[in-house]
Amino acid sequence: MRAKHYYMAKTTKTAKAFDHNQQQKCPTGIKGLDEITKGGFPRNRTTLVCGGAGSGKTLLGIDFLIRGASDFNEPGVFMSFEETQDELYKDVASLNLDLKGLVSRGKIFLEHVVLERKDVQETDFNLEGLLVRLEQAIDSIGAKRVVLDSLESPFAGISDAGILRLEIKRLFRWLKEKQVTTIVTGEPGQGGSYTRHGLEEFISDCIILLDNRVKEQIAIRRIRIVKYRGSNHGTNEYPFVIDDDGLSVIPITSAGLDQPGTAKKVSTGIPSLDKMFKGTQGYTRGSTVLASGTAGTGKTSLAAAFAIASCKRGEHCLFLSYEESSGQLIPNMGAIGIHFEPWIKKGLLKIVSTRPSFFGLEMHLLDLYKLVDSFKPKAVVIDPLTSLIGEGDQREIRSMITRMIDLLKSRGITTFFTSLVSSSAENDTSGEMGVSSLIDTWIVVRELEENAGKKRTRGLFIVKSRGTGHDSDIHKLILSDDGIDLVSMDSATFAHQPKKTLKRVTPESLGISK
């Protein structure tokens, strides 16, 4: 007890005045995390980050220090009870995190503490040595942030709950008086507690729970704020991912229903389809368009025409293909007079092909965020949206699509989705995947039969187009070497045919050209 009184008296002299009347925030710099915490972790207080093995606790702590040193000029100390300095360097070697560089420049201090059995025995337990080393590390670089990984290690030998609570409170109070924002990591205990001892969660000012679960052979990472004293915060589970840039949280709150409206229009890329939007000549800029239909009805062709029209306006267009590689897509579209190569060479069109099953929904969404930030497109095509169905349950898919649409709308990006409908579906408007309320313009393409079922053709009609008058009649969709054309069903049989073919009226002469 003498050591405790002596040490606390020593640190009180150097502590700065602490404002208890205002909850100050320490921004983490981690994408999305500051949004769900409403500004960051509680400044000069302790946050408990808990979760099972492989959930990302250590990486979150390292990322917190690196962002602090790089973005906010706040040096940090990482005290590890399990991994050495070299092991920590190897942990982040595959990521774009300059941990070693920041350590060499004195922005981050790595301290590895080796605990002997005598150090954690209850009869002889004393935090004094640990606090001395921690104070030296903090003072040596003027640290504002501290990470202790993990908190269980120094208290492993204490079984008396009373002593354990006093010592943890003593540590947290000491950190608070040192005016450092601290993260302590912990592993879940028995009976649903967030830590093995089950006490840190009651003393911490903020608790962050990380989870890495596997559902239907797909790994899913989730983050949740369990508590945050004196602050409002997001209460849901949010997806997060770990990629080359570290940890990123994708909250649904990152975008919402605050996009400005516009009366500007953009061409569909098909003159006859433009005319179906009465008096407007195309889609509303920054809106979402869905083309749904069975296989082979021309959904990708409509999307390709829209992409080329965007490039012709001098705008960047991003084409995400989930079923065809660029090597397949380019010649396929070239067969109907839509040529991608010139626009790719000019840098206006970017085709990204990937299989949805390669990684989870969150990683797809994060990749879209990065592509939008780097390529800055004014138009995006996602073909087809239904390929994502197998990567999660209906609620997760809808949540992901909502985030995706909010992201694109918030940037004023006109988005064209395609959706595959089962050929056995009786309702041709079944391709909306439960997101029809988020779609501004909805186009359905379907199969048509002529001459008592002897000819199979394609038809197109507009289900809805918000704020825009439109022709809702079915039009014949014609794909040929010269491109795409739409013909009214009333005039398709005769008016669209050259007069010389009408010399002899036969079933063949009443069919569709090419």
Tags for this model:
single chain, 514 residues, alpha/beta, Rossmann fold, 2 domains, 9-stranded mixed β-sheet, 22 strands, elongated, disordered N terminus
Domains (count)? 2
Poorly predicted parts:
1-20, 426-430, 494-514
Annotated CATH homologous superfamily of the largest domain:
P-loop containing nucleotide triphosphate hydrolases
How confident overall, as mean pLDDT?
A: 81
Largest beta sheet: strand ordering: 5-4-6-7-3-8-9-10-11
Q: Report, as a whole number of angstroms, the end-to-end distance.
A: 93 Å
Which value, in Å, is the CA radius of gyration? 30 Å
Q: What is the name of the CATH class of the largest domain?
A: Alpha Beta
Largest sheet: 9 strands, mixed
Helix content: 25-40%
Q: Choose one word for the global shape.
A: elongated
> How would you classify the helix and strand content by structural class?
alpha/beta
CATH fold label of the largest domain: Rossmann fold
Number of strands: 22
What proportion of the residues form beta strands (DSSP E)? 15-25%
User: Helical stretch count?
Assistant: 15
Summarize the structure.
By secondary structure, this protein is an alpha/beta fold. Helix content is 29%, strand content 25%. Helix 13 runs parallel beside helix 14.
Descriptive account of the structure:
The chain is an alpha/beta fold and 514 residues long. It has two domains: 2-254, 3-Layer(aba) Sandwich (Rossmann fold), CATH 3.40.50.300; 265-502, Rossmann fold (3-Layer(aba) Sandwich). It is built from 15 helices and 22 strands. The strands form four sheets. The chain has a nine-stranded mixed β-sheet with strand order 5-4-6-7-3-8-9-10-11, sandwiched between helices. A nine-stranded mixed β-sheet has the order 16-15-17-18-14-19-20-21-22, with helices on both faces. The chain has a two-stranded antiparallel ribbon with strand order 1-2. Helix 14 links the parallel strand 17 and strand 18. Helix 13 (361-375) packs parallel to helix 14.
